[in-house]
């Protein structure tokens, strides 16, 4: 059916590549392009026996001209951006210049400010409309599936949703005292930033990790959850009509929080460049270099993730609650694609989103967040491609 250019060759990209290769009717041909081409070649070597034709390329995606040249050479139907958020705009510019559809899993961030906002990418809306191409923003799990869950809840269960609590639990244990499950730089920037939640039309800021609760997760049990700012709240606040409150919660263990506080207190999580032996270095980038590579956690991680959303609202004048979630097992993911569940739960939705565009189920000109598309074919695909979901109609609420 089509050709996808996959940019990036890290933890998430590896899952996207595996899943595209499991789905050769849709992904007849892929090109894996990244800064370190040896990682692309290693992926190709692993998967070359399948039906999907694979090529690789060396690419600096910070350079729009390089991306344009590769698109012109490979002629993909869609670009799947699973590099880092810093590359979103240069890749979108290249898609505009070549009139190719675009999908990513994280909103653009400028390198020097940890700001999680869609404004830079939403500014491309008109240009994408005029070019007649589709951009799907934030199509991982959160953001991503959480937006699809929200559109599904709205379509099938509610007249009005008043409150959304997004709950992201990782009960995986990799055996290291401290490591992050996806790119450490991106992960730590997110966690050390101020928290926020949406209430009555505005975002209310909190100190980092200021608000904590305990939640008893299905199949995982009691976990400490902390309120974070998370990018999908911004689009859901606009796209779920009548919404009054949105909160995002993530689990962290005591051990993780203690390590993080120490690293923060000694300045290792700062993104301000410092002088070190005659050269400028960013402490957080140095920390990333000494922490375990998230891709290496796969074989060591045991346990499950549970990510889902609790909705409160009304249907036919009656109050209603609804919880929809996916439970994913780290070891099962590793067995299937050689990655842990965090990469898996991000990479599978990225493949599905690209499939939706190629199959023209999610094809309209402009720049969209996932909740702006029909959730039904995507929900069906989640069950088929490794992320089955479960529903509860009287869940325990987060207080
Ligand atoms: P990794 O650090 O493992 O991989 C990033 C990849 O991008 C690496 O292969 C890296 O190359 C490549 N890259 C970086 N800069 C460039 C560049 N300028 N040009 C070309 N390639 C480049 O990250 P993850 O796989 O863990 O994360 C990928 C994305 O997924 C991130 O944007 C992250 O925020 C997002 N994500 C989204 C989630 C969601 O649920 N929505 C959850 C988890 C992650 P090199 O090997 O040379 O470093």
Automatic annotation (TrEMBL):
Superkingdom: Bacteria
SUPFAM superfamilies according to UniProt: NAD(P)-binding Rossmann-fold domains
Signal peptide: none
Family annotation (Pfam families): Sacchrp_dh_C (PF16653), Sacchrp_dh_NADP (PF03435)
Gene3D superfamilies for this protein: Dihydrodipicolinate Reductase, domain 2 (3.30.360.10), NAD(P)-binding Rossmann-like Domain (3.40.50.720)
InterPro entries: NAD(P)-bd_dom_sf (IPR036291), Sacchrp_dh-like_C (IPR032095), Sacchrp_dh_NADP-bd (IPR005097)
The name this protein goes by in its record: Saccharopine dehydrogenase
Provenance organism: Anaerocolumna cellulosilytica
């Amino acid at each position: 059916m089509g050709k996808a250019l996959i940019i990036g060759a890290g933890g998430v990209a590896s899952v996207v590549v595996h899943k595209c290769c499991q789905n050769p009717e849709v992904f007849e041909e892929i090109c894996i392009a990244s800064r370190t081409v040896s990682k692309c070649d290693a992926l190709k070597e692993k998967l070359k026996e399948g039906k999907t034709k694979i090529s690789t390329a060396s690419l600096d995606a910070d350079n729009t001209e390089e991306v344009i040249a590769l698109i012109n050479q490979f002629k993909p139907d869609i670009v799947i951006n699973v590099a880092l958020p810093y590359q979103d705009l240069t890749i979108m510019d290249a898609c505009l210049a070549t009139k190719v559809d675009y999908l990513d899993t994280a909103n653009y961030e400028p390198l020097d400010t940890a700001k999680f906002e869609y404004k830079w990418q939403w500014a491309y809306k008109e240009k994408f409309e005029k070019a007649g191409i589709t951009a799907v923003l934030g199509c991982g799990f959160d953001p991503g599936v959480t937006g699809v869950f929200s559109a599904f809840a709205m379509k099938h269960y509610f007249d009005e949703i008043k409150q959304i609590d997004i709950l992201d639990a990782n009960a995986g244990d990799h055996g290291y005292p401290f490591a992050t499950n996806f790119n450490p730089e991106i992960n730590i920037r997110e966690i050390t930033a101020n928290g926020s939640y949406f209430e009555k039309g505005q975002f209310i800021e909190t100190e980092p990790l200021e608000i904590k609760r305990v939640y008893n997760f299905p199949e995982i049990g009691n976990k400490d959850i902390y309120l974070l700012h998370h990018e999908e709240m911004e689009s859901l606040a606009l796209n779920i009509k009548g919404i009054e409150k949105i909160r995002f919660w993530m689990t962290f263990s005591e051990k993780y929080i203690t390590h993080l506080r120490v690293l923060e207190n000694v300045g290792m999580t700062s993104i301000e460049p410092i002088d070190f032996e005659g050269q400028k270095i960013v402490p957080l980038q140095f920390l990333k270099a000494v922490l375990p590579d998230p891709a290496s956690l796969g074989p060591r991680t045991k346990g499950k993730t549970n990510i889902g959303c609790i909705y409160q609202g009304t249907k036919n004048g009656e109050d209603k609650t609804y919880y929809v979630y996916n439970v994913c097992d780290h070891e099962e993911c590793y067995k299937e694609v050689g990655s842990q569940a965090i990469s898996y739960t991000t990479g599978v939705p990225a493949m599905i989103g690209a499939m939706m565009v190629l199959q023209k189920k999610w094809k309209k000109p402009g720049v969209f967040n996932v909740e702006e598309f029909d959730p039904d074919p995507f929900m069906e695909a989640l069950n088929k491609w490794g992320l089955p979901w479960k529903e509860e109609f009287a869940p325990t609420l987060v207080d």
